[in-house]
Design goal:
The structure is a single chain. The protein is of the alpha/beta class. The chain has one domain: Hypothetical Protein Aq_1857, Chain: A (Sandwich). The protein has 2 helices and 9 strands, in the order βαββββαββββ. It has a 4-stranded mixed β-sheet with strand order 3-2-5-4. The two termini are 17 Å apart.
């Protein structure tokens, strides 16, 4: 099991944490939501709990709660710029279906 982050995404996360002035890394998980079942949850990881799993990739600690781990394991987090738009993109091999709006996925 692993979670990886591309260099572009790692640079963006480092920039956010630096401007914020604190943070252990990136908290990444899922919640039940949307028409396809799950949506990704991304936030700052200000602390790491005993039940959390931590993955190091490109200088970023990616913190995943135990309940999300089975759904997001082997996901690659990327940061993509297209024209004026920029967004984090999640390449999850377990995601089989996505809803029309692209906000949720099923496994």
């Amino acid at each position: 099991m692993s979670i990886t982050i591309t260099a572009a995404a790692a640079d963006r996360v480092k920039e956010y944490i630096r401007s914020r002035g604190k943070g252990e890394g990136l908290r990444f998980g899922v919640k039940a939501n949307g028409c396809s079942g799950y949506s990704y949850v991304v936030n700052y990881a200000d602390e790491i709990g005993p039940e959390d799993h931590v993955f190091d990739s490109n200088g970023i600690k990616i913190v995943v709660d135990a309940g999300s781990l089975g759904i997001v394991s082997d996901t690659e987090i990327d940061f993509v710029k297209t024209g004026l738009n920029e967004t984090f993109q999640f390449n999850n091999p377990k995601a089989k279906d996505t809803c029309g709006c692209g906000e949720s996925f099923g496994i």
